[in-house]
Structure formats: structure tokens, C-alpha cells
Amino acid sequence: MVKPKPESVLRDLQACDRIRNSLPGLRATVLALGWSVGLRNINELAREVDLSRGTIYKDLRSRGINPKLRDEPVEPTYPPMSGQVIADLASLIAAYAAAFRQEGESPTSDPKFVFCAGALLQLVGRLVETPPDDAIDDDWKHEDSRAWRLVDILDDLETLLEITCSALAENTTDAQAAKAFSRTAMTDTAFDAYVEAATFRLSLPDGRTVNVEITRDEGELLTIRGDDPREDTQADRREHLALVNGFRLMAEAMKPRFSTKSPQNP
User: Which residues partner with 234 through β-bridges?
Assistant: First the structure.
């Protein structure tokens, strides 16, 4: 197996203990949410979730709900969101997945996928616990700032996206990959933004630069052209899926800048 560090496992066990202590509050919050969306039969709730009626009454009252007023609209009173609880739950997800990871595992194995998702959610929990910065840190010195947390989240999102694209490539044909992210699949209306082609200059680790042009063929798969026209080739599925997802971000980022402004949306 891929062995985590002992101190990491110890932190996960400490998270288990904190989660055990947090469970009553989490349950009360979820019960209050259920009540607010119409789950108001106490007997049925008690049976379905294996709780006593007294516990349900107590939990609901702790969130500002009078269980006797079943037909009254209600806005539950929730405690502030806890980033520590989010991070602890996420650490348990990652630790559980770590127990199943193996040396030489596939880059797209389920345990690795779940582990990376848990690690990402841990960062989200730490973000929730980080107060807004008092000032912009131009020198990027404060690694516990919200800005740093958000950069870490983007890094982990990139890793998760790479794994997802590789896994999807293993589980689709070329035609399926093209259809999943075709124009009709990616846009809600005929007027939504959509990257049809892209040209850019790619700097490589060895110092070389390459002019790259990416277009779509009739089947919606991407074709990649470099400086040498003899190198023109159809993107493989992993490349196609990664690139079209990048195009989606580009289109959403550029749409407000170039969209025609209407009188209703100046």
C-alpha cells in the first residue's frame, strides 16, 4: 500500500474524535433542514433515521423550531458554518481512501480519486476557517491567508480535473468523448459562448516555444497543429477532454467582455 506518515494518521484519528463530538450538532442541523423542506412527520422521521421522538424534538428545538407547529412556515436558526467540521469530515474521507491505495496504482484508480477529492475538501474547510484578509498581501507572504488557501484549492482542482479527464478517456470512445462536450451538450442556448478554435504560443521546459493551433473536425474532436504541418494530428481522448474543459473556462471568462449588451442588460 501507499503508506501515509504516522503523524498524518494520528491527525486523522484526532479528527475522528472531533467528528464524534460534532455529530449531535450535525444531526440537528440536517433535521432542521429536513423540517424546513417538508419532512414534518415525527413518527416517520424516528422510524427512518432510527432516533427517538425525544431526540428529534430536542434537535429541532435547538435550531429554533417548534415541532408542534407542523403547518407553520419556518426559518431554522443554524449555528455558524464550521470549517473545522468540513476539514475533519474531509480528512476522514482521504484517510479511508488511503487505506486502499497501492504502490504502482493506476493514476485513475478509485482510491486515488477519492483521496484527492478528500484532500480538496480539507482545503475548502481551512478556507472557511480563514477570516477575510485585512489587506492585500502584495508579497504573498501570508500562507494562511484566504488568497493562499484559494491558490491551493485551484492547484488541487487541477489535479482532480487531470485524473477525471484521464479516467473518462479510459471509459469512452472517441465519438462519446466528442459528444459529451460538443457544442449542443455544452451550451444551453444557441447564443451561449463556445470556443470553436484557439491559437497560442506554448513554452516548453527545454526552452523551446511552439505555435499551436487547435480546431474541431466535423465530428467535434480536436485537431492539434504545431509549427510543422506534418505534425498535425487528432487529439487523443485524454487531450481532447482536458482541452475542451479548458475551453469551457475560457468561454465563461470571456463571455461578459464580448457579449452584446441589451437595453435590459446594459
Answer: 223
